[in-house]
Specification:
Layout (H helix, E strand, L loop, with lengths): L7 H30 L4 H8 L2 H4 L7 H9 L12 E3 L8 E7 L9 E7 L9
Antiparallel strand pairs: 1-2, 2-3
Length: 126
């Protein structure tokens, strides 16, 4: 049994519908992927949105004050274990901290912490 093709009018309707819907979907996917690329620059957006974070306290920052602030935090940082502190720069004016938190119970799993500190006030941002 041989199938008959569509007449000219329905064929043109389906052809143009397929073309237009393909273009619309391609544009939608382009916008979605382009917007997703901005998540790679999330920390730069924070600095762009918050002008006070750009330069506040960069000159006054001392490592001793940062360590004292970490000791006084509610989280029980284990400063005897590996603690990494990324100092503020003009491009990245927040202090980034990677540390371990002392477990509340003996034998509990190690808790890793990564956060940011305001170099002007020595308060944790996250």
């Amino acid at each position: 049994m041989k199938l008959k093709g569509l007449a000219n009018r329905p064929y043109n309707i389906f052809f143009h519908l397929h073309t237009v819907s393909g273009i619309v979907l391609a544009v939608a996917l382009f916008v979605i992927f382009f917007a997703g690329a901005f998540t790679l620059f999330k920390s730069e957006f924070y600095l762009w949105e918050n002008p006070q974070a750009r330069t506040a306290g960069i000159r006054d920052f001392t490592l001793g004050k940062a360590l004292n602030a970490l000791k006084n935090e509610e989280l029980a940082f284990d400063l005897n274990d590996e603690t990494f502190i990324s100092l503020p720069t003009a491009q990245n004016p927040v202090v980034q901290i990677f540390a371990h938190i002392r477990p509340e119970q003996e034998g509990a799993p190690e808790i890793h912490y990564a956060g940011k500190m305001d170099p002007g006030t020595f308060k944790m941002l996250e």
